[in-house]
Amino acid sequence: MANIKEQLRKPFCGKETCEAYGDMVDELKRVKKLTRKLDVVLDSSYDGIYITDGDGITLRVNKAYERITGLKQGDIIGKSINVLVEQGIISKACTMLVLENKEAMTIQQELAGGKVVLVTGTPVFDENNEIEMVVNNVRDVTELLELREALKENELKMNLYNSELERLRKKMNRPAEVISRNIEMKKLMESAIRAARHDTTVLISGETGVGKEIMAKFIHQHSDRCNEKLIKVNCSAIPENLMESEFFGYEKGAFTGANSNGKTGLFEEANGGTIFLDEIGELPLNLQSKMLRVLQEQEIQRVGSVGTIKIDVRIIAATNQDLMQMIEQGLFRKDLFYRLNIIPLHVLALRDRVEDLIPLANNFLEKLNLLYDENKKFDKEVYKSFANYNWPGNIRELQNVIERVFIMTADQLIREKDLPLEVRSPSDDEVVVEGELKLKEAVGKLEHAMIQDAFKKYGNVRDAARSLGIDGSTFVRKRTKYLHELSLLKTE
């Protein structure tokens, strides 16, 4: 009896069996916990995940796959991937390609709703090197494809725009051309081309507005330096106290207010290319000596520096002044003049090349038509007025007059009446000289009338002076002179 009771007190199973059973329960709990974690990981992925076994039977899909495809997990678990293809839900199965090729594959797949996805299938092998599962990573690329198409379309548009801009740029920024039918000007251009082939210094002379800058640009573009910089400098526009630092630069701390890093001068900027010094006669004497050194030694010295910098610059200078007269007056160095005047080129005034008026006028009008998408033309009477006018402002004045009438004329035909008063051909009753006057007096009377008419028309000195092709100070001086003479006559 005691033995029976003792047996009843013993566990139903052996100790070893119970321990094994407990381990199995713990392992099952761990597996469930890992499975839940795996589910969380899969569902946290933004990309869709579609898992099949080695026969293509669906084992698991995550929430992202449901979101991307619209399919529910319960509707496809346990079904073959081929069923989805047969039902037209997907265009083709990446899983079957992986099973066939036994390697990772990537395909573009179309869904029934029109979406496009990128699917990468990766095989999982067992210990016998057989495919146990296929894990498909599914990414929605519909928006990316739409964006790519939009980018392609925009790229095509941009190419068209760039082509059109390039066409306009080539037309508006043609190489510098000197339009002329004048024999002397043609000879001058031949000389300019010969000079362009060498690095020698050129001095261009001519009145204001004849096109000295165009000539300098022409020489640069026909030289071996054409692919380098052309630095244009108007010597009259730089304050005298800043000229040296602008031309040659300065070291840091060279003077009060100087840039803390120093500054590169215009000659250094032009290194390897060409520098065009317009209005060279405006250089002060102290700077002329330094300019001579640059020409002779091809080196510059920054303000505040004790060292020199070698440069390789071709110099083209221009002036509307009589430099020889300035030399006699002690205003310009003779040695600098001869160093600049190696190749002298004199550009004729427009009144001395009247045969160029029509080609130049038509060229300016053509550029404006192109720029503003117009088709304006000149009436033949306009050409007569152009031929009869003296053009004191030369080509620049002609260009300004044409631009003004182009903008202010509403019609497509520009007539003589659209021209500024001073440019129109005078009729018989527009200029009246009473009595017997000497030429100087007659010219003065006409000049006074023109100044008064210009001021009355524009209402300010700047525009009135510009219309007459003179500067503001000259206009004020002449107008004051005539008003003074008029007041004297009234008091007599």
Please, could you describe this protein's structure?
The chain has 492 residues and is an alpha/beta fold. It has 5 domains: 1-38; 45-140, 2-Layer Sandwich (Beta-Lactamase); 183-348, P-loop containing nucleotide triphosphate hydrolases (Rossmann fold), CATH 3.40.50; 353-425, Helicase, Ruva Protein, domain 3, CATH 1.10.8; 427-492, Arc Repressor Mutant, subunit A (Orthogonal Bundle), CATH 1.10.10. Helix content is 49%, strand content 15%. The chain has 20 helices and 16 strands. The strands form 5 sheets. It has a 5-stranded antiparallel beta sheet. Strands 7-10-13-6-14 form a 5-stranded parallel beta sheet. Strands 8-9 form a two-stranded antiparallel sheet. Strand 3 (105-110) and strand 4 form a beta hairpin. Helix 15 crosses helix 17 (394-408). The protein is elongated and about 140 Å long. The model is unreliable at 431-435 and 488-492 (pLDDT under 50).
The separation of the N and C termini measures 168 Å
The portion of residues assigned to helices is: 40-55%
Rg over alpha carbons: 44 Å
| CATH uppermost class of the largest domain | Alpha Beta
Number of strands: 16
Reported CATH architecture of the largest domain: 3-Layer(aba) Sandwich
| Tally of distinct domains | 5
CATH homologous group name of the largest domain: P-loop containing nucleotide triphosphate hydrolases
Largest sheet: 5 strands, antiparallel
> What is the helix tally?
20
Shape call: elongated
Structural class computed from helices and strand pairing: alpha/beta
* pLDDT < 50 stretches: 431-435, 488-492
pLDDT averaged over residues: 83
Per the CATH scheme, the topology name of the largest domain is Rossmann fold
Strand order of the largest sheet: 2-1-5-4-3
Strand content: 5-15%
